[in-house]
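Changelog note: in this version the structure field was regenerated for every chain. One regenerated record is shown below for reference.
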Amino acid sequence: MKKIYAFDFDGTLTTKDTLIEFIRFTKGSRQMFLGFLLFSPILILMKTHLYPNEKAKQKIFSFFFKGIRIDDFNTLCTRFAQQNKHLLRPAGEEKVRKVIEEQNVIVLIISASIDNWVRPFFDGIDDKIKILGTQIEVKENYLTGRFTTKNCYGQEKVNRLLALYPHREAYDLIAFGDSKGDKELLDFADKGYYKPFRNKKRDAKK
């Protein structure tokens, strides 16, 4: 039977949230801080479940990146990945590289992050991996600041997977996640692994 390996990205394969790190990389810490300060009322409401996660994320993304040429944005994404490989957890990266060599498997990265900066982290093996992330709208070669898909979070992760592979009985699903945004995917899987690539000794001290 075919196997599908589905990996969350932020926090599972990486040590940090890459949206925050990407903003810091492209705009600098000061501008990032001022931007998040501006949106702090919305972020507080989001944390208390009084404002949708998806809308908050899109407002922040639009604030920082609306109006950028898509070619320039993709160049930034590639540079970000190249200069931040240290964000990948070694055990997670090793697992991805190992499973893509198996026979009759599909490897997915299912992430709330934007496809454009997730894919370059897997340069060299990206042709063997499908990236299912939050996708951005581009019109006349410029970012509009809007998303063309739902934020790939929670149930949307399962929805995106089923849109590509609807015959659930035809494959075994092995999923890896680290947060409440991965709960539905982990529950849907035949085998679900929560925070699997952490340094156990280090994490035990936290």
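Spot check on this record: The chain has one domain: 2-204. The beta strands are 2-7, 105-114, 129-134, 136-139, 142-147, 171-177, 191-194.
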